[in-house]
Amino acid sequence: MYAQMIKTAGTGVKSPEEMTEEERKFQARVDANEKIEPKDWMPDDYRATLIRQIGQHAHSEIVGQLPEGNWITRAPTLERKAILLAKVQDEAGHGLYLYCAAETLGVSRDELTEDLLSGKMKYSSIFNYPTLTWADIGAVGWLVDGAAIMNQVPLQRTSFGPYSRAMIRICKEESFHQRQGYDIMMKMARGTEAQKRMAQDAINRLWYPSLMMFGPSDKESVHSGQSMAWRIKINTNDELRQKFVDQTVPQAEYLGLTIPDENLKWNEERGHYDFSEPDWKEFFDVLKGNGPCNTDRLTARQEAWSDGKWVRDAMLAHARKKAAAKVAAE
Amino acid sequence: MKNEWPLWEVFIRGQHGMSHRHVGSLHAPDAEMAIKNARDVYTRRNEGVSIWVVEARHIAASSPSDKGPLYEPSESKVYRHPTFFDIPDEVGAM
Amino acid sequence: MTRDEALFEFCLRMGDSTLVLGHRVSEWCGHAPVLEEDIALANTALDLIGQTQLWLGLAGEVEGKGRDADQLAFLRDAWDFRNLLLTEVPNGDFGRTLMRQFLFDAWHSVYLARLLKSSDKRIADIAEKASKEVAYHLERSADTVVALGDGTEESHQRMEAALAYLWPYVGEMFAGDAVDAAMAEAGIAPDPAGLREEYDALVGRVLAEATLEMPESRFAHKGGRNGAMHTEHLGHILTQMQWLQRAYPGASW
């Protein structure tokens, strides 16, 4: 999940009696699966929550460029290099689409960026883990993109039009990401002893952080209830996590890799795999800024932003001069 | 002074002679760079053969509250659709 | 030197330049001043990597020793590389990267235009594909150089500094040698010295618009195209680029 622990604004789901006339009409449109468009009336809390959620999603995409970007210059073949670069470029594109969707709600990309850089807004916990070997690039595509897709596919049906359209485009582009990751894993799992070791090491390190991507259980959360009533959250975190585990276990078996969980077992009665919860203390530590890469990731983004200022300013200054000269000539 | 590049709306015409379609937005310092950025951002998968950009603030939009008066009157003009007319099968394709 | 040996060298020169520059440009991914530029730079790098596959693929074919593009890219040491020195210098700031790109694109476009008429169809075909990509690279890098040269006082100074740093690496593009003579004689590729005038006119036009002065010095660092003496930077590029292939010989990725 690229949007985690989004605090829903407001006091929770209101009954129709508690709602104003406008709120009732709005909720009826959402319930009828109509899309809400930027100029339509919407509750302030809906707007505020969406800005948080879409903004965090966008931040995750661009911070997510960094762990994978870490291997672009070390990719082992020309084809792998091109594929990885195209994939990381897609993440930049997805960040861009999402920032634009957020901008329709009346916040600028610069404002969102500043909130990311100041630490006021968060990005997904997963990107605070390092990519240490080439197998990590495979595992990130397979597990991390796999987990993201679980969330993004249903979000194509979200109630806010620009968010929904961005997700449709993102899902379409993203369909190759998980496959390229699995393709790397297949090569590694069938490769030399060292490659197999690398692949197993990658899943050992990235399995639980991938499960954390869905966030802690939110079955009882009033915030989630409101977000689900607004259809900006479609499934509970536990539903998606279960779906991810069920889908991933057979894929790991096919690779001959072991998922690092002794309690992992098919439960005939439930029709699902039983599995161990990740260490939620570690999750909250990472969220607080104490993951292995938090400081490096944020520093990289801060440097890109501050080192790029003169470029952004100069290109705008040139455009203004050109426009002024054109007006003067007319 | 606030120095954020203006927002542009991007319209792309695909391969098959269809009209330009809104595909998304981006930031650029001016129209020329907006077209270049649109090429780099929105045609990475061979999506288009022609790009239009327009600065977002120049787009005039209909008001959502006018939805009823603007669009509902056409709902009753069913005779504008070919399916309104029953043509016997023996006449052939029409 | 047989004709095929010269042709092999020629293909390495083309492919190594696109390989090394593509590597440099890809270093920006995730770090550019604005998302739109990040995406655009990645497109340029992707084009260059694609061109590398074609040039080094042809080099391996011409050599006839069963080496493919990957083996040539990942298993040669620095002294066997034939890229222009310009492509291996560090990125510096965004302005220097774009100035380097422009100086390279201008040469690349002039050179590829001649290769379209190469007597070797394989080369004309690669040039056909690459020249369309490079026409766009040039348009974009030239526009950016103009904007940054003209933009603000700070950007102007930075672009001046970038040009001063990079200019001594321009001359190498036009210093012909025996390989070039053999290629010219066979009608495969032009004599690079003959392209300087066209290049200077193109670069001069853009620099003038960018309010930057074209340096007068013709001093040129050389040694990349013939492998005689690279900069210290190339070794570090290869240390990264070739790491996996070197550390795990024979593995398939």
UniProtKB/TrEMBL annotation, chain A:
Documented EC number(s):
1.14.13.149
Q: Please verify whether the record's keywords include Oxidoreductase.
A: yes
Q: Name one GO molecular function term.
A: phenylacetyl-CoA 1,2-epoxidase activity
What Pfam families does the database record attribute to this sequence? PaaA_PaaC
Give the domain of life: Bacteria
Listed under GO biological process in this entry are: phenylacetate catabolic process
**What GO cellular component term, any one, is given?**
cytosol
Q: Which InterPro entries match?
A: Aromatic_CoA_ox/epox, Ferritin-like, Ferritin-like_SF, PaaA, PaaA_PaaC
Q: What is this protein called?
A: 1,2-phenylacetyl-CoA epoxidase subunit A
Lineage, broadest ranks: Bacteria, Pseudomonadati, Pseudomonadota, Alphaproteobacteria, Rhodobacterales
**Gene name, Swiss-Prot/TrEMBL:** paaA
UniProtKB/TrEMBL annotation, chain B:
For this UniProt record, the keywords arranged alphabetically read as follows: Oxidoreductase
Keyword Membrane assigned to the entry: answer is no
Name the Pfam families on file.
PaaB
E.C. no: 1.14.13.149
Recorded GO molecular functions are: phenylacetyl-CoA 1,2-epoxidase activity
**First-level EC class:** oxidoreductase
What is this protein's name?
A: 1,2-phenylacetyl-CoA epoxidase subunit B
Which species? Answer: Antarcticimicrobium luteum
Automatic annotation (TrEMBL), chain C:
Any single Pfam family the record assigns to this protein: PaaA_PaaC
Q: Name one GO biological process term.
A: phenylacetate catabolic process
GO cellular component terms, alphabetically, are: cytosol
Name this protein carries in UniProt: Phenylacetate-CoA oxygenase subunit PaaI
Gene symbol here is paaI
